[in-house]
Amino acid sequence: MRNINTNHPIIQNSNQYLYEKKYISVHSEDRDYSKFPQSSEFEIMLPQEYLNVSSACLSSWSFPANYNVFSIQTFNTTMTFKFSNLYNPGEFSVSDPLLEGIFAALYSLSNSDIIEEYQFLITIEPGFYNPTQMATELTNKFNEIVTNKITAFFAIPLNMATYPIAASTFKNYNRFNIVYNTVNQKLWFGNTADNFIITNDFIYFSSKQFVEQSCLRKRMLPEYNNWGLPSYLGFSVCEAPAYSAAETMKLVQSTPTYQQLVPRFYYGDAQPGTGDNGYWLLPGEPGATVYFLETPYKISFMGPSYIYMEIDGLNCIDETSPWNLSEFTSHTNMTNGIVNSSFAKLAVPTTPLSQWFDADSKPYKYWNPPAERIGKLKFKFRYHNGVLCDFGNFQFSFMLEFNLFRPQQERTYNIKSAQEFAQLQKP
What we know:
alpha+beta; 7-stranded antiparallel beta sheet
């Protein structure tokens, strides 16, 4: 067909397309560091504009397994405890100035009206722990915080004058002992003289304040599963919808035992190489009673199982959301899930420190009609609870697959073989 007013032919759309796969390799180190210092969220310009994109998917990827299971961002590095019944040497006719001074210091703290004084707050080092390392870390942290508060008590001039021998001879508090039972995979908390309480209600209250005041936690969705360090250690949460969130936490109190009844692990040494024959908690002072508790559940140190990859404009996965008690959930029967929340869901198959490689992500993003052009993409990597992944200085890479429709002109060909052509030449 030819337009009579022009010498240029008008080519009609023949709806003929060439289906083409195009792959784009993206490296986290290629981002603009001045705009995106953290690799968990960045934007990047593609090498060219891709036209008529009919679908997109994640083809392959490689990520570092260097995440911190315990970190400030996830608010699972702190827990609290307090004392109830204290070892009083006077009750056992023990005359020891040091023990008397320690009792006076702890008694003063446990009867204080200031929450920060009678609640002992410990903070573990962020990172990844195995069970034995966690037991050692908690033992040292529990004893250290008590040591620091007793030292501060003796630093007051009046107390120093009242207990001069204790103030000059006190070195450290070492009555806490926390061990890991390798058979039932639970932590056991013990004290060789003083009764104590693990106050999970206080840790939830403080975490709620921390969420409201910390920009790092604004993204995190409310959870009933991972509500703080105690939940990873095996402590439980009692659900009581009629009460406030702070009152639903279960208060775990240590169980008193008599001196002749001490906890024991019967499978062997509680602390390998010590030859303790399973006796991990013995009375530490004359006439003292030991106190201990076993966590209700096994430890959970593996961290998140999946990473969610978001790409602006390409998200195609609907995702359920952690249930929470709110005005919305209590007055409607609708879900609080998210439509088109992410582009890909990546399993984390290994623990730090390592790197994993994988391929063939099933989710696809489809366009009908095809997307006209794609030249820039914005990525975000997060966990299911909304917290951004912290890759640190480790780099990662992934490859995207774009399926393109290339418009083609309709062509017809009349092709004959050389043999047929030779026969046509015969007279």
